[in-house]
């Protein structure tokens, strides 16, 4: 059934156009275009207000349609984009005034459309965002927005907004010039309509000025035509195709909980217990409180729990001052968090999230104390990045209700939640853990229990390959340049310093204790151990790791690093080889996780990689990178790098070799591979 744009006309001759959402499809553009042409042709209509249905948002670009259309004939996609861009230009150049009533999200192409209007009225308060979020999918503006926005707020400010793809709060959008005025939500449409009436009256009194203004549109035909062609060129390219699939379609599928076990009613979480008021615990408490749940934040003493809340209060105040947060909503969020040192306060919580020190005994003690007072239906979730869930569940009296929830730091900003299913975790607990992820606004991926799970295991391969490069005598500048060239947010040695070298060494020592004779220190990990134990170089937190850190925040490589790491050996390596080694190390480890059944869905692998540790977004994820290169070509490249540099980590897994022999792709194969 085709989407229909409704039109309401008031006594002053203002037409309010509303469409159903939640996505812009070809049908929506057709219906909207027809309504606008009718309004422009009707002498009884003074002007137009564009508004979403009800109190919702305008909707976003239909990525499912775009992904399919971009793989079809260019002419068909170009025709739709041309019509949409021409419609925005028609609004912009209209002699009749157009206003946008923003009561919900105005993102991506929806924001482009409202920017073509002559005035934008938004609702006060939190609850929606405004921004050029289509850039997250590798898509440029579609409707000739760059020159239009530059004419409005200046070229430099416009370029920053378009490039950053930031979703702004209403107050931040007002400050940035994307919105002209904020009023109470109930008055938005009426205020926009009143502006149209007054603007129409002024234009009728000065028709010459209205004609000049209409003729002087900041977006001439040639500009929007060029923008439409550029959009289609990019949308049909491999980078946007992979980013749309992973960051658009696959993330949306994860958020819909498509892999949730069936047969269990959706669970509602009204009260959450968080064990630990440090960086992770307080961050978890904050996202839960922002979602509207009451939170008990427990630490070893009342003072330490209060310090955690005080840190959150300071953090929230900074967000309010910067316009990122609404003051009233922020106060309400903080009021939902109760700091305490008394385990009895956990009585009646729906879920306990343990975020204490990464030590088995510490976690076991917290588990026993919490379960003694939490109700029999309460879920128990441990936040850990490395410790196997099945082993931690040994301290639980209800292992079926025990699950791993791996949050990423900083918790309020990182969208991913890695849900780890232990050996005894029930289907019902997994289903309810996924409900919890959706309730607090996190994108979940589900993995089976294994050392390092999925995300930690693969990001450690990125770091470990860099360590081995150093131990081989590679130039540390080349290693870091390879990380930057790959598109990773932080190069590997700087990332390791930030994580802390002593923590990395501690994880390796724990693995060695657990695995015994089966564990073998790589040359790179052995080097890190020597740096920590013999040189006291523990990373950024102590001012000394791979880098030396000055008090003013600047950094430079430890002068003895290359000599120390390799005992004087030298390996010459190009930036291109360093780049491919670092990407391939992660991609092949991801294939191993699929091969071993740690994770079973390629799309969740790619979602977890980009949202969890910032794997190069332009690739669409490590498995999309393999498929784009072609499995056969990837195997050949990895074999060549492995032989050239003696890297066992870059030897393609057996499963990938089988795919190469079959001539198929990672995404097309069924996993675990038969």
Task: Describe this structure as you would to a colleague.
This protein has 674 residues and is of the alpha/beta class. The chain has 3 domains: 6-236, 2-enoyl-CoA Hydratase, Chain A, domain 1, CATH 3.90.226.10; 271-449, NAD(P)-binding Rossmann-like Domain (Rossmann fold), CATH 3.40.50.720; 456-662, N-(1-d-carboxylethyl)-l-norvaline Dehydrogenase, domain 2 (Orthogonal Bundle). It contains 28 helices and 20 strands. The strands form 5 sheets. An 8-stranded mixed sheet has the order 13-12-11-14-15-16-17-18, sandwiched between helices. Strands 1-2-4-6-8-10 form a 6-stranded mixed sheet, with helices on both faces. Helix 15 (360-373) links the parallel strand 14 and strand 15. Helix 18 (455-472) packs across helix 22 and helix 24 (575-595) packs across helix 26 (622-629). The longest helix has 21 residues, at 575-595. The two termini are 41 Å apart. The relative contact order is 0.07.
Question: Which residue ranges are poorly predicted, with pLDDT under 50 across at least 5 consecutive positions?
Answer: none
Kindly report the average pLDDT value: 94
- Based on helices, strands and strand pairing, what is the structural class? alpha/beta
CATH level 1 name of the largest domain? Alpha Beta
| Percent of sequence in beta strands | 5-15%
- Nearest-angstrom radius of gyration? 28 Å
Provide the number of structural domains: 3
How many extended strands? 20
Number of helices: 28
Look up the CATH topology of the largest domain.
2-enoyl-CoA Hydratase, Chain A, domain 1
CATH architecture of the largest domain: Alpha-Beta Complex
Measure the end-to-end span: 41 Å
Give, in spatial order, the strands making up the sheet with the most strands: 13-12-11-14-15-16-17-18
Helical content stands at 40-55%
Largest sheet: 8 strands, mixed
């Amino acid at each position: 059934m085709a989407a229909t744009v409704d039109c309401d006309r008031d006594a002053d001759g203002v037409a309010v156009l509303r469409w159903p959402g939640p996505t812009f499809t070809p049908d929506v553009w057709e219906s909207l275009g027809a309504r606008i042409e009718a309004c422009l042709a009707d002498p009884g209509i003074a002007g137009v207000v564009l508004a979403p249905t009800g109190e919702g948002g305008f909707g976003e670009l239909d990525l499912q349609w775009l992904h399919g259309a971009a793989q079809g004939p260019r002419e068909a996609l170009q025709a739709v984009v041309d019509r949409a861009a021409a419609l925005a230009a028609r609004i912009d150049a209209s002699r009749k005034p157009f206003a946008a009533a923003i009561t919900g999200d105005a993102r991506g192409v929806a924001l482009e459309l409202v920017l073509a209007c002559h005035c934008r009225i938004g609702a006060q308060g939190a609850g929606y965002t405004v921004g050029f979020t289509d850039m997250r999918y590798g898509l440029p503006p579609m409707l000739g927005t760059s020159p239009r926005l530059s004419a409005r707020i200046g070229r430099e400010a416009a370029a920053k907004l378009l490039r950053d793809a930031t979703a702004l709060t209403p107050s931040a959008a007002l400050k940035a010039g994307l919105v002209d005025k904020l009023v109470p939500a109930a008055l938005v449409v009426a205020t926009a309509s009143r502006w149209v009436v007054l603007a129409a009256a002024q234009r009728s009194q000065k028709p010459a000025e209205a004609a000049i203004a209409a003729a002087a549109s900041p977006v001439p035909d040639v500009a929007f035509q060029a923008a439409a062609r550029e959009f289609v060129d990019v949308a049909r390219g491999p980078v946007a195709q992979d980013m749309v699939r992973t960051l658009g379609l696959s993330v949306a599928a994860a958020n819909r909980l498509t892999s949730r076990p069936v047969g269990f009613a959706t669970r509602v979480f009204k009260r959450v217990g968080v064990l630990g008021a440090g960086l992770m615990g307080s961050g978890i408490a904050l996202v839960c409180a922002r979602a509207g749940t009451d939170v008990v934040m427990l630490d070893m003493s009342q003072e330490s729990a209060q310090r955690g809340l005080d840190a959150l209060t300071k953090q929230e105040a900074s967000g309010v001052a910067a316009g990122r947060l609404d003051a009233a909503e922020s106060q309400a969020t903080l009021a939902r968090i109760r700091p305490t040192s008394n385990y009895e306060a956990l009585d009646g919580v729906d879920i306990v999230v343990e975020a204490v020190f990464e030590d088995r005994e510490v976690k076991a003690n917290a588990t026993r104390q919490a379960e003694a007072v939490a109700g029999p239906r309460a879920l128990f979730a441990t936040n850990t990045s490395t410790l196997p869930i099945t082993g931690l569940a040994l301290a639980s009296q209800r292992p079926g209700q025990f699950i791993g929830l791996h949050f990423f730091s900083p918790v309020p900003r990182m969208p991913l939640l890695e849900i780890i299913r232990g050996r005894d975790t029930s289907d019902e607990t997994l289903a309810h853990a996924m409900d919890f992820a959706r309730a607090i606004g996190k994108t979940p991926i589900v993995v089976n229990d294994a050392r390092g799970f999925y995300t930690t295991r693969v990001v450690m391969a990125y770091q470990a390959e860099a360590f081995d490069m150093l131990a081989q005598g590679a130039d540390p500048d080349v290693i870091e340049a390879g990380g930057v060239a790959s598109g990773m947010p932080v190069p590997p040695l700087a990332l390791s310093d930030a994580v802390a070298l002593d923590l990395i060494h501690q994880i390796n020592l724990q693995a060695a204790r657990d695995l015994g004779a089966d564990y073998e220190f790589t040359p790179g990990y052995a080097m890190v151990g020597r740096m920590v134990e013999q040189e006291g170089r523990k990373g950024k937190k102590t001012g000394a790791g791979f880098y030396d850190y000055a008090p003013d925040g600047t950094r430079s490589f430890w002068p003895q690093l290359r000599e120390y790491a390799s005992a004087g050996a030298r390996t010459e390596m190009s930036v291109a080889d360093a780049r491919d080694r670092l990407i391939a190390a992660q991609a092949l480890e991801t294939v191993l996780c699929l091969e071993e059944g740690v994770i079973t869905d390629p799309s969740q692998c790619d979602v977890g990689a980009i949202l969890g540790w910032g794997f190069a977004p332009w690739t669409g994820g490590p498995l999309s990178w393999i498929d784009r290169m072609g499995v056969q070509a990837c195997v050949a490249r990895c074999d060549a790098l492995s032989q050239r540099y003696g890297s066992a980590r870059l030897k393609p897994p057996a499963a990938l070799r089988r795919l190469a022999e079959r001539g198929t792709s990672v995404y097309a194969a069924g996993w675990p591979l038969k």
